[in-house]
Design brief:
Pfam family, one: PrpF
Family: Belongs to the PrpF family.
Number of helices: 6
Protein name: 4-oxalomesaconate tautomerase
Order of helices and strands: EEHEEEHHEEEEEEHHEEHEEE
Structural class: alpha+beta
EC number: 5.3.2.8
InterPro entries: OMA_tautomer-like, PrpF-like
Radius of gyration: 20 Å
C-alpha cells in the first residue's frame, strides 16, 4: 500500500497521554490503508519508534481521527486508534479518555466548531463505543487558551482546565450482570463506565498494590495470572476473544495511602500504567460505589459528595461519580465528570517513512464499528 507523502497533523498532549490528531479527511478513507499509513507515521513496529512520532510507550503512541458528526446530538466524531509500539498493529477496540481531552480544542483549531467568546463546549461522539462526552474549555476572544492554573498528576506544570462530562451510557455498568464474578479463583468486579475494566483486590494476587509499575511488569507469575483473568473476563463481559485486544483493562486495588479513596495499578493490558486512564478511573470510581463489589470494603469515600480521588503510581485523579438503581435492581451510572488539561505541541505536516521500507500490518480489528 502507498499513502500520501505528507499529512497535516497536530501533536497534542491530552491528559497524561500524547498523540497525533488528524482530520478524517486528511487520512485515507479505507481503514487498512489508513492504519498502514499511521504505522509509518508513528514509527511502528519498533520498540523505540525511532523513525516516527511515537514515544516508545502505549501512552505516547496514540492517534485521534476527528470529523464533523452527522449525529444531531454531537458536534464531532472522535475515533481513537491505539498504535502498538512493537508490532504492526492498530486497534480501534477501545476509547481513550486522555486523548479525549484534546478533541474539543482540536475541533476549534480546525474550524469544525466555532469558538465562544469566553468558553466553548464541544459535544463529542466516541466512534469506538458510541458513547458521548461534552468538553468545555476556555476560548477568550474566540481562541483556544491552553494556559491556566489546573494541575493534574503525571503532567508537569499547569494548564487550562478541560471539563469533560459523560452522560449515562446506554450499556450496562455491570456487563456480566453480577456485582462479583470469580475467575481463576479470584473475586473480580467487571464494570464498563466508558471502558471495560476488571477490578481486582491486589492482595488476592499476592501483591500489595503499592509496587512500582516496572516491578509489577517484571513479575512473570503475576503476568500469567492477569492474562488468564483478562481472557475469561473478556468472554464474560461479552467482548469475545480478547487475546489480541487491549480491553478489558485490569486494575488492582489497595487501600489508599495519600488521602484518596483507593490506590490503583492498571494494566493496558501488559504494561502497567504510570498513572490511570480517564475512562478507567471512571470505572474504578463507579465500581467503588457498588455495594458488595470488589474494592468497596477497601475504599475510603466521602459520604457527602460525588468526588472520588483515585490514587495511581504518579499521583491521583479526581472523578465526579454517582450511581442510581436501574429497573433491574442493578446500579447504573447517573453522572461522571472529570477535569483534565490538554496542550497543543505542534501543528504542521508529518512525513511518514517510506512505504517500501515499512511492514504491512495484519488488519483483524480495523475500521469504525
Amino acid at each position: 500500500m502507498t499513502g500520501p507523502a505528507e499529512v497535516r497533523c497536530m501533536l497534542m498532549r491530552g491528559g497524561t497521554s500524547k498523540g497525533a490528531y488528524f482530520l478524517a479527511e486528511d487520512l485515507p478513507a479505507d481503514p487498512a490503508a489508513r492504519d498502514e499509513l499511521l504505522l509509518r507515521v508513528m514509527g511502528s513496529p519498533d520498540e523505540r519508534q525511532i523513525d516516527g512520532l511515537g514515544g516508545a510507550h502505549p501512552l505516547t503512541s496514540k492517534v485521534a481521527v476527528v470529523s464533523p458528526s452527522a449525529d444531531p446530538d454531537a458536534d464531532v466524531d472522535y475515533l481513537f486508534l491505539q498504535v502498538v509500539v512493537d508490532r504492526p498493529e492498530v486497534s480501534d477496540r477501545q476509547n481513550c479518555g486522555n486523548i479525549l481531552a484534546g478533541i474539543g480544542p482540536f475541533a476549534v483549531e480546525r474550524g469544525l466548531v466555532p469558538a465562544g467568546e469566553k468558553e466553548t463546549s464541544v459535544r463529542i461522539r466516541m466512534v469506538n463505543s458510541g458513547d458521548r462526552a461534552t468538553a468545555t474549555f476556555p476560548t477568550p476572544d474566540g481562541r483556544v487558551d491552553y494556559a491556566g492554573d489546573a494541575e493534574i498528576s503525571g503532567v508537569p506544570g499547569t494548564a487550562a482546565p478541560v471539563v469533560i462530562e459523560f452522560p449515562p451510557g446506554e450499556g450496562k455498568l455491570l456487563p456480566t450482570g453480577k456485582v462479583r464474578d470469580v475467575i481463576d479463583g479470584v473475586p473480580v468486579t467487571c464494570v464498563d463506565n466508558g471502558m471495560p475494566t476488571v477490578l481486582i483486590e491486589a492482595t488476592s494476587l499476592g501483591v500489595t498494590g503499592y509496587e512500582a509499575p516496572k516491578d509489577l511488569e517484571e513479575d512473570l507469575a503475576l503476568a500469567d495470572r492477569l492474562r488468564a483473568i483478562r481472557l475469561e473476563a473478556g468472554r464474560l463481559m461479552g467482548l469475545g476473544d480478547v487475546s489480541d485486544t487491549t480491553v478489558p483493562k485490569l486494575t488492582l486495588l489497595a487501600r489508599p495511602r495519600d488521602g484518596g479513596a483507593v490506590t490503583t495499578r492498571t494494566f493496558i493490558p501488559v504494561r502497567c500504567h504510570t498513572s490511570i486512564g480517564v475512562l478507567g478511573a471512571a470505572g474504578v470510581a463507579a465500581g467503588l460505589r457498588i455495594e458488595g463489589g470488589v474494592g468497596a470494603d477497601l475504599a475510603e469515600l466521602d459520604g457527602g459528595g460525588d468526588r472520588v480521588r483515585v490514587e495511581h503510581p504518579t499521583g491521583f485523579m479526581d472523578i465526579e461519580s454517582s450511581l442510581i438503581k436501574g429497573s433491574d435492581g442493578l446500579p447504573v451510572a447517573r453522572r461522571t465528570a472529570v477535569v483534565r488539561t490538554a496542550r497543543k505541541i505542534f501543528d504542521g505536516t508529518v512525513f511518514p517513512r517510506s512505504a517500501e521500507t515499512a511492514p504491512i500490518p495484519p488488519h483483524p480489528h480495523g475500521g469504525q464499528r
